[in-house]
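LOG
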Amino acid sequence: MNNKLFPNLWRFIGLTAVQVLLLKQLTLSLGAYFNILLYPLFILLLPIQLATPYVVLLGFATGLTVDFFYGSIGVHASAGAFAGFFRFLLFTAFAPKGGYSGKEPIFSPEHMGWSLFLQVSAWFFLSYLFWYFSVDNFTIVYFGTVTLKTLAAWVLSMVFVWLYTAMFNPKN
């Protein structure tokens, strides 16, 4: 159990700390269109075999933790819960022909290859960010703003996702 718990616990602490201590300040300095959200990577890198209800709860808890530091109670939590469910849909859509064998503990470049990992990450973050900004604005009037913020944040976040996975090479 510790074999799976500790890497995920450290990933949660590390990504949440980077998000609230560094990336939040970067967004405040550069402006509203320069959002970088890296902490959803924790949700994506949870064990593949973990049941979807647990992933949704962990996504909600992760988002609630970030909400506490951002002062936006509920927005990140909503997006985290959505990401936990959407992860199941993505993993199902991009599953190998025979399904996942269990040899791949997490959905990382080490186990899936860079091409597949970046494809799934791109869809995951695009949907996450669109949900996040939609809930943040909560009206159809700002659809253009939501779309622009989503695309800008998606490009910036994907750069950081690539850097994180290249630097830390998550395996467990």
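LOG (cont.) second protein
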Amino acid sequence: MSKPDLIEIRLKLPSDVAETLSNKEIIGALCDKSFTKAEYYQSKCNEYREKYKTTFASFRKKVNSSKEEHFQEWDDLLIWEGCELAMRDWKKKYAELKKRLA
């Protein structure tokens, strides 16, 4: 079973706030939030790229093929992978929200 493209949600807001916001403004705020999250995780990935002077894929290959265990590298690999996944997920959310603004 596939996920529906859109899910309707209801928000309870103070009346003075609800009267001043449109659906487009709410989606825009969510779009901004998702962009900020994607940028945050992108910056974390960039820190590891700079630290190891390589891409995530190359670093993963190096760590996985090493005959010696380097615990710091394994720790960094796990964190970097989490940041890569989070960045992709937030970029996808941003793209979906941006389509709704058009």
